[in-house]
Design brief:
The complex is a heterodimer of chains A (about 375) and B (about 450). Chain A is mainly alpha-helical and about 375 residues long. Chain A has a domain at about 10-260. Chain A is about 65% helix and about 0% strand. The longest helix of chain A has 26 residues, at about 225-250. Chain B has about 450 residues and is α/β, with parallel strands linked by helices. Chain B has two domains: about 45-180 and about 320-400, Rossmann fold (3-Layer(aba) Sandwich), CATH 3.40.50; about 185-320, Response regulator (Rossmann fold, 3-Layer(aba) Sandwich). Chain B contains 13 helices and 17 strands. In chain B, the strands form four sheets. A seven-stranded mixed sheet of chain B has the order 7-6-8-11-12-16-17, sandwiched between helices. In chain B, strands 2-1-3-4-5 form a five-stranded parallel sheet, sandwiched between helices. In chain B, helix 3 (about 115-130) runs parallel beside helix 4, helix 8 packs parallel to helix 9 (about 300-305) and helix 11 crosses helix 12 (about 370-375). Chain B is globular, with a radius of gyration of 25 Å. Classes of the chains: A mainly alpha (about 375), B alpha/beta (about 450). The interface of A and B includes residues 19, 27 and 135 of A.
Chain lengths: ~375, ~450
């Protein structure tokens, strides 16, 4: 696969193909009903979130169960930047990255004293704490359950004066960040994030992170201290999450505490494992798959099913519809669960393992035996 | 070749710039189809699509399920199927059961999950992908406010479902948003006289409040009206939405010296908190020489069903109840009952009415353009929808109608017959000036 025999040229081609694929998503996702701006934005944003998570989990093997906290911090920072400075997304992005970076530094400094399950529990605890803070204690800052929004009465230093009318949307030098403009903004940020992730994967720093995952003890014996590396990875990964949170608010200026809930943290873990931890493309595929299920499958109702299975004779159509209706609509979690089980059991390396198996089928040239290519889940 | 050669020269910068520019520009040619419409999602075929955004999971899922049933019934009636329900008793006769503006009504559904994020995502999907001309539904004020401002920004009409907070048509009102349901201000105004008669003017109240916009709003309104008649508020404690276990909040009530507990909860939260309060023996206690009482300011039959025995004798207010004997209510209960086998809840009623009112306004305006529909809803007076003479006030897009004060029935005759109507508070008594709650409507947004 592209990742294995990496040369600068093949990396660049890989990136170029990826960039074209991302930017033309509105076209090739249209036939499966996903070619509308809101979902495309979600693909790009959660793709970025999962890419950042993968920098920590995929490379160092540290499984953080609290990444949604950084997403939430990024969101709140972005909305506050809108409220105080103005509706331009650039300052919001920068502020969100800085704040979530600082937040990740604090949490990472404490949590990374432990590894394995204890690390996961610590991050989960911190995230749950942040959620409860945002939900009830810090209501003046976060507006609790109702969610933080930009109001007309906000100061908005740079563009607040004058306009009483007009929608309160993020505005990049005259382009409103909704619809396709919002998607392309997110897509470009995703590409930048992906490019940086690719660089990190190839860098000596990335090798160090893999070394942490492979055998931390051996690394310590050779005289290297893994802590600075893991902390750096944690902070970078937190910044990615903060950036994704900011993008969520740029495309829709509202931040709610539920973004920090543990289910949201679990979701990014699912995305990464579903797609393939430790691969560049996997987490993005996983994110897209989960968001697709959440938005498209949950919207199917019996009416839609009857349309789909309309070709069947009536005595078959009704049982088929009544069985399959369990798996769509409110039952989309069920479908996702089944899919997740199938993938984890048969393709432990996620969707990317499936892809590489298929490419190996078609590639006839004799392969050297590859030592444990499956990216095993964290210890 | 590398992306940018190390000594940066003019050529490599130009090349990178051109590549990036070309990549960015390519897909925009595919997005230009928007320009041909006069308003967002203008229906061009034989169908017009409504978007029903209701909670199918979470604390308000029961209400959501009932809302969806009501919407499906409304669509049937609009398309001339079934017995026509309240279309027969509605004072406006513009709708004839042949769809709206000659177009058959179709619908799409979405799950709000009682979360603002999810609700906005599913509303966006319905607007952007399914081409919904109008979004309606919601069973939480937080969600309703979030979706309402989304619809304002996108440029479609939002017909609020079950949302009781003052803010929906108060400080967060929007020109594209309309609400038929009553609000906490009206609940307070209607409940206070009844409470005064039943419990006297010397009471100490303890509030447990769902910690979001609706809870805050209801706590404020009930405080305002009860304190006006001489009650004292001992404490007001905020509880998280969907807490499940309220025992830690109820224990302190026993020692607070309060003799009335006001539960500003709704849905499953109310079922749990009320059940636990009764289990803790609050209602059997004597405090300050008076019988301890519980009040649930916003009642619904679905909650009463969930709380069972425990609702007996407890006062509250409601927007509508299926036992009402006017022609509109009877027609609606009959056709809902025939379809689903049980009577509708107040959530079902308000959602049904909102769908019909929207369709009627579009029919009278002869267009689905948000500004045209909005103008024909503003100041609209109607009857025959179960609440007596009703006005859609132009200044804040809030409906004004009679409010019901109800009480849990002591001897229910069936599993649905749990509430009795104590008093129908006339509309004049619950009206308030439009500027009292603040907020700005702004202008209609047609989305182009």
């Amino acid at each position: 696969m592209v990742l294995k025999n990496s040369s600068p040229t093949s990396d660049l081609i890989f990136f170029a193909v990826f960039a074209v694929a991302v930017l033309t998503m509105p076209v090739w996702l249209e036939p499966i009903g996903a070619g509308y701006p809101d979902l495309l934005q979600k693909f790009a944003i959660y793709g970025l979130f999962a890419t950042g998570f993968n920098l920590l989990f995929g490379l160092t093997g540290y499984l953080s169960f609290g990444h949604a906290a950084f997403l939430g911090v990024g969101s709140y920072t972005a909305v506050w930047t809108f409220k105080l400075l103005g509706m331009n997304p650039i300052p919001a992005v920068i502020m969100a990255i800085i704040t979530s970076g600082i937040f990740a530094l604090l949490i990472g400094y404490v949590s990374l004293r432990r590894s394995g399950i204890y690390f996961s529990i610590l991050t989960l605890a911190f995230a749950q704490m942040s959620y409860n803070l945002a939900y009830s204690v810090l209501t003046p800052i976060t507006n609790g359950e109702t969610g933080l929004r930009v109001l007309r009465s906000d100061p908005r230093l740079f563009d607040g004066a004058g306009e009483a009318q007009g929608p309160l949307l993020a505005n990049l030098f005259g382009f409103e960040m909704t619809g396709y403009a919002g998607f392309y903004f997110c897509a470009v940020v995703l590409l930048i994030g992906f490019f940086i992730a690719q660089r990190i994967f190839r860098s000596p720093f990335g090798i160090m992170l893999r070394a942490v995952k492979t055998n931390q003890n051996r690394m310590t014996y050779t005289g290297l201290n893994p802590r600075p590396y893991t902390l750096a990875a944690f902070v970078i990964s937190g910044m990615y999450a903060g950036l994704a949170g900011a993008l969520l608010c740029i495309t829709d200026p509202l931040a709610g505490a539920e973004r920090m809930q543990w289910t949201a943290s679990g979701e990014v873990v699912l995305m990464t494992i579903l797609g393939g931890a430790g691969t560049l493309l996997g987490p993005i595929l996983g994110a897209a798959l989960i968001k697709y299920f959440e938005n498209i499958f949950s919207a199917f109702n019996e009416q839609t099913l009857h349309e789909i299975f309309g070709f069947l004779p009536d005595f078959l159509e009704y049982p088929v519809v009544s069985v399959s209706s369990l798996f769509v609509g409110e039952g989309w979690h069920l479908t996702l669960g089944v899919l997740f089980m199938i993938i984890v059991i048969f393709l432990p390396g996620g969707l990317m393992e499936g892809v590489s198996r298929i490419t190996r089928l078609f590639r006839r040239k004799p392969q050297k035996s590859e030592p444990s290519r499956a990216t095993a889940p964290a210890e | 070749m590398s992306f940018i050669r190390k000594p940066l020269n003019r050529r490599s910068i130009l090349r990178a710039g051109a590549m990036g520019g070309a990549a960015l520009a390519t897909p925009t040619i595919f997005t230009s189809k928007v320009w041909s419409q006069t308003y967002l999602n203008e229906p061009t075929g034989a169908e017009v699509t409504f978007g029903f955004n209701v909670p199918q999971t979470g604390a308000y899922a029961d209400e959501g399920a009932d809302e969806l049933r009501a919407y499906q019934l409304a669509v049937k009636h609009l398309n001339g199927e079934g017995d026509g329900g309240m279309l027969n008793t509605f004072s406006s006769k513009a709708l004839t059961g042949q769809g709206v503006n000659g177009k058959k009504v179709a619908f799409v559904t979405g799950d709000t999950q009682t979360k603002s994020d999810a609700a906005r995502a599913s509303a966006k999907r319905m607007i952007e992908k399914d081409g919904a001309i109008m979004i309606t539904g919601g069973s939480s004020s937080g969600v309703a406010i979030a979706v309402q401002s989304l619809c304002q920004e996108a440029g479609v009409i939002f017909m609020a479902g079950l949302t009781h907070s003052n803010d929906t048509t108060g400080k967060d009102k929007r020109a594209n948003g309309f609400r038929h349901f009553f609000n906490t201000e009206m609940s307070g105004a209607a409940l206070a006289p009844v409470l005064k008669n039943a419990y006297g003017t010397d009471r100490k109240a303890y509030h447990l409040t769902a910690d979001y916009t609706w809870g805050w709003s209801q706590e404020g309104s009930i405080k305002k009206y009860t304190e006006d008649m001489g009650w004292e508020t001992v404490a007001a404690v905020r509880t998280p939405l969907g807490a499940g276990d309220f025992s830690q909040y109820i224990t302190p009530v026993l020692n607070s010296g309060a003799d009335v507990l006001v539960l500003n909860h709704y849905g499953k939260d109310m079922v749990n908190s009320l059940t636990q309060a009764v289990q803790f023996g609050l209602r059997d206690k004597q405090v300050n020489g008076k019988q301890f009482e519980i009040i649930v300011p916003l009642y619904s039959r679905l909650m009463a069903q969930g709380a069972g025995e425990n609702v007996k004798g407890i006062f509250g207010s409601t927007n509508w109840h299926w036992s009402l004997q006017d022609e509109g209510s009877k027609a609606f209960v009959k056709s809902f009952g025939q379809e689903y086998g049980f009577p509708p809840s107040q959530a079902a009623h308000t959602c049904y009415v909102q769908a019909i009112l929207y369709a009627d306004a579009a029919q009278r305006a002869g267009s689905f353009m948000p500004s045209a529909v909005g103008e024909s809803l503003e100041g609209f007076e109607f009857e025959g929808m179960g609440n007596g003479p009703t006005l859609y006030r132009a200044a804040d897009h809030q409906c004004f109608k009679d409010v019901l004060v109800v009480k849990g029935k002591e001897n229910p005759s069936s599993q649905f017959d749990l509430l009795e109507v104590v008093e129908v508070t006339p509309r004049a008594q619950v009206e308030y000036p439009a500027d009292m709650l603040g907020g700005e409507l702004g202008n209609f947004n047609n989305g182009v």
